[in-house]
Amino acid sequence: MGQHGIKNYLNDLPCFMDVTTIVGSQMNQDLKTLLIRLSFGIIGIAAGIIFRPFWLSEWGIPTFIFLVWVTISIALGWIGRSQPHSFRFGFIVGSGLALSLIATVLTKSVFVGLGLLIVLACIGIKTKFFA
Description:
Elements: H1 3-12, H2 19-50, H3 52-55, H4 60-77, H5 87-107, H6 110-126
Protein backbone atom coordinates (compact mmCIF):
# COMPACT_ATOMS: atom_id res chain seq x y z
CA MET A 1 0.00 0.00 0.00
CA GLY A 2 1.57 3.29 -1.11
CA GLN A 3 0.72 6.78 0.01
CA HIS A 4 -2.34 6.91 -2.22
CA GLY A 5 -3.64 3.69 -0.69
CA ILE A 6 -3.34 5.05 2.86
CA LYS A 7 -5.00 8.33 1.87
CA ASN A 8 -7.91 6.52 0.23
CA TYR A 9 -8.21 4.24 3.26
CA LEU A 10 -8.31 7.24 5.63
CA ASN A 11 -10.88 9.02 3.46
CA ASP A 12 -13.11 5.93 3.60
CA LEU A 13 -13.23 6.12 7.40
CA PRO A 14 -16.12 8.28 8.66
CA CYS A 15 -13.95 10.29 11.04
CA PHE A 16 -11.40 11.25 8.33
CA MET A 17 -13.73 12.14 5.45
CA ASP A 18 -12.71 15.35 3.69
CA VAL A 19 -10.63 16.54 6.62
CA THR A 20 -8.05 18.12 4.33
CA THR A 21 -10.69 20.07 2.43
CA ILE A 22 -12.45 21.37 5.54
CA VAL A 23 -9.26 22.24 7.42
CA GLY A 24 -7.62 23.80 4.36
CA SER A 25 -10.47 26.21 3.65
CA GLN A 26 -10.85 27.11 7.32
CA MET A 27 -7.12 27.75 7.65
CA ASN A 28 -7.17 30.03 4.61
CA GLN A 29 -10.07 32.02 6.06
CA ASP A 30 -8.38 32.23 9.46
CA LEU A 31 -5.15 33.40 7.85
CA LYS A 32 -7.00 36.10 5.88
CA THR A 33 -8.73 37.28 9.05
CA LEU A 34 -5.42 37.36 10.93
CA LEU A 35 -3.70 39.33 8.17
CA ILE A 36 -6.57 41.84 7.98
CA ARG A 37 -6.48 42.36 11.75
CA LEU A 38 -2.69 42.77 11.73
CA SER A 39 -2.85 45.28 8.87
CA PHE A 40 -5.49 47.36 10.69
CA GLY A 41 -3.33 47.26 13.81
CA ILE A 42 -0.26 48.39 11.90
CA ILE A 43 -2.24 51.20 10.24
CA GLY A 44 -3.52 52.27 13.67
CA ILE A 45 -0.02 52.29 15.15
CA ALA A 46 1.30 54.30 12.21
CA ALA A 47 -1.56 56.81 12.54
CA GLY A 48 -0.81 57.15 16.25
CA ILE A 49 2.84 57.89 15.60
CA ILE A 50 2.43 60.15 12.57
CA PHE A 51 -0.50 62.18 13.92
CA ARG A 52 0.74 62.35 17.53
CA PRO A 53 0.25 66.12 17.87
CA PHE A 54 -3.39 65.74 16.80
CA TRP A 55 -4.10 62.92 19.25
CA LEU A 56 -2.61 65.01 22.07
CA SER A 57 -4.66 68.09 21.13
CA GLU A 58 -8.12 68.91 22.50
CA TRP A 59 -9.77 67.13 19.53
CA GLY A 60 -7.74 63.93 19.89
CA ILE A 61 -9.63 62.17 22.67
CA PRO A 62 -13.16 62.90 21.34
CA THR A 63 -12.08 61.72 17.89
CA PHE A 64 -10.59 58.55 19.37
CA ILE A 65 -13.78 57.82 21.32
CA PHE A 66 -15.88 58.43 18.19
CA LEU A 67 -13.69 56.09 16.12
CA VAL A 68 -13.91 53.39 18.81
CA TRP A 69 -17.70 53.77 18.91
CA VAL A 70 -18.08 53.52 15.12
CA THR A 71 -15.64 50.60 14.83
CA ILE A 72 -17.19 48.54 17.62
CA SER A 73 -20.73 49.25 16.38
CA ILE A 74 -19.91 48.12 12.85
CA ALA A 75 -17.76 45.16 13.89
CA LEU A 76 -20.30 43.74 16.32
CA GLY A 77 -23.28 44.67 14.17
CA TRP A 78 -22.00 42.68 11.21
CA ILE A 79 -20.22 39.39 11.84
CA GLY A 80 -19.63 38.15 8.33
CA ARG A 81 -20.93 37.80 4.80
CA SER A 82 -23.77 35.43 5.55
CA GLN A 83 -24.45 36.16 9.22
CA PRO A 84 -25.43 39.74 9.90
CA HIS A 85 -25.91 40.37 13.57
CA SER A 86 -28.38 42.96 14.61
CA PHE A 87 -27.45 46.60 14.11
CA ARG A 88 -29.01 47.31 17.49
CA PHE A 89 -26.61 44.90 19.24
CA GLY A 90 -23.53 46.59 17.77
CA PHE A 91 -24.91 50.06 18.47
CA ILE A 92 -25.69 49.28 22.12
CA VAL A 93 -22.37 47.55 22.88
CA GLY A 94 -20.40 50.27 21.06
CA SER A 95 -22.31 52.96 22.95
CA GLY A 96 -21.61 51.26 26.27
CA LEU A 97 -17.91 51.10 25.53
CA ALA A 98 -17.84 54.73 24.37
CA LEU A 99 -19.73 55.78 27.51
CA SER A 100 -17.17 54.04 29.72
CA LEU A 101 -14.33 55.74 27.79
CA ILE A 102 -16.02 59.12 28.30
CA ALA A 103 -16.37 58.41 32.03
CA THR A 104 -12.69 57.44 32.17
CA VAL A 105 -11.62 60.66 30.45
CA LEU A 106 -13.85 62.94 32.53
CA THR A 107 -12.94 61.44 35.91
CA LYS A 108 -9.30 60.62 34.98
CA SER A 109 -9.76 57.26 36.68
CA VAL A 110 -9.56 53.94 34.89
CA PHE A 111 -11.44 52.28 37.73
CA VAL A 112 -14.54 54.42 37.13
CA GLY A 113 -14.58 53.45 33.46
CA LEU A 114 -14.07 49.77 34.26
CA GLY A 115 -16.75 49.93 36.94
CA LEU A 116 -19.22 51.49 34.54
CA LEU A 117 -18.40 48.86 31.91
CA ILE A 118 -18.93 46.05 34.44
CA VAL A 119 -22.23 47.58 35.60
CA LEU A 120 -23.44 47.85 32.00
CA ALA A 121 -22.41 44.24 31.32
CA CYS A 122 -24.24 43.08 34.47
CA ILE A 123 -27.37 44.95 33.39
CA GLY A 124 -27.09 43.32 29.97
CA ILE A 125 -26.77 39.87 31.53
CA LYS A 126 -29.67 40.45 33.98
CA THR A 127 -31.97 41.61 31.19
CA LYS A 128 -30.81 38.67 29.01
CA PHE A 129 -29.63 41.09 26.32
CA PHE A 130 -26.65 38.87 25.41
CA ALA A 131 -28.73 35.65 25.24
